[in-house]
Amino acid sequence: MKLYVADRAPGPLVAKRLFAAKNIDVDFHVVDMNNKENRSPEFLKLNPTGQIPFLQLDDGQIIAEVTAIAEYLEELKPDPVLVGATAAERANTRMWMRRVDIAVIWPMGMGFQHGNGAGFFAGRIPIHEDISAPAQAIASEGMQWLDAQLAGNAFICGNDPRFVDIVFYGFASFFAKVSQPVDPELVNLSAYMQRMSEHPFITSVK
Predict the structure, then answer these.
(1) Whole-prediction pTM
(2) Which of 45, 151, 162, 173 has an alpha carbon within 20 to 30 A of 203's alpha carbon?
(3) DSSP-derived secondary structure letter, 37
(4) Among the residues of the chain, which ranges form H helices?
């Protein structure tokens, strides 16, 4: 297997942590995003979205999106559990992944791409500067909602870490540095971020 990654991007770091959590070996291909390698015709034949990371299997099949990669790795190696040991646990993890993606991760990304990150993304995607502020407002509202849901829970799905925690922390910690910090008044979310920063799923790959 070959994992296509890039330096300093949150998605590839998340994917590396998923492989590390499962203790599965994989070869890396580092994509030169600065020179738009991921927008080249050769790259787009592999992944037409031009996004990173994605996994190329030994038979040539492509699996993109960190959630799909996490699900694939769970099928390869169920231990440690990152999706769920039962149908109900798996459904719960997928539900929470969808919730935090819509409520927080996606609008955070839109706010960055069309705001502070517009200089990098210009020429790669259409830039709409008027999207940034509303997207960040939506993400802020989502973080407030998530803060309430985390009351009494160590992790997003409950008391056990799941792949959603690796994904959420990876993106939220990146955006906290470049565009949208977590409000310290959100005590549950702030405590969760600190807890995740010290978890082996995160510290194993920097």
Answers:
(1) 0.96
(2) 151
(3) G
(4) 10-22, 41-46, 66-76, 87-100, 106-113, 118-121, 129-149, 163-178, 187-197, 200-203
